[in-house]
Amino acid sequence: NAGVTQTPKFQVLKTGQSMTLQCAQDMNHNSMYWYRQDPGMGLRLIYYSASEGTTDKGEVPNGYNVSRLNKREFSLRLESAAPSQTSVYFCASSGGGQGKNTLYFGPGTRLTVL
Amino acid sequence: EDQVTQSPEALRLQEGESSSLNCSYTVSGLRGLFWYRQDPGKGPEFLFTLYSAGEEKEKERLKATLTKKESFLHITAPKPEDSATYLCAVQPRSTLTFGKGTMLLVSP
After folding, report:
1. Cα-Cα-Cα-Cα dihedral of A9, A55, B93, B34, to 10°?
2. At residue A101, does pLDDT exceed 90?
3. Residue A106 and residue B42: Cβ atoms within 8 Å?
């Protein structure tokens, strides 16, 4: 069981470039989430998908789009990157039985926008 | 608005020196309170979920407790390997709201 995997681990972009962060989980979870973590700000929810086929905005959705490709995969796209999007991005999943609300996190993607 | 406040922001302990981390919250209906541990450069790792006031959970040197307004993470006789950032999160609805964390450093 790999749990939650994210690619890439590191990325450097120039302002205006686009990229997609990939996330996959092998725990048969229904819900998946994208968070960003910034110094002094804690983890903030960008978008989430409560189940396959649905997506909803979180606290800080501006400048991002998401796709729930199937039950396993949830991607985050930056269409035109800005320096304010420099952050560490975490994907998480939850679902299934007792403790179904518990989030399980991936290792993160460290993104720098120049 | 849902709020989670963790204190202190940072804590330095000597090995064996017990202490507590605090997580106070304001939410409109609590469905769960979660504690996570995060090591530098890694994703948060789940520790505990508490659902109702009076509930307690333990794991090795850690014990989490919950009241109607706050939760404590008690660390008994900590070791250097307990050094990490500890995150608290609340679930008022379908998603979690996180605090900013407490950075714990345990010196030998």
Report:
1. -10
2. no
3. no
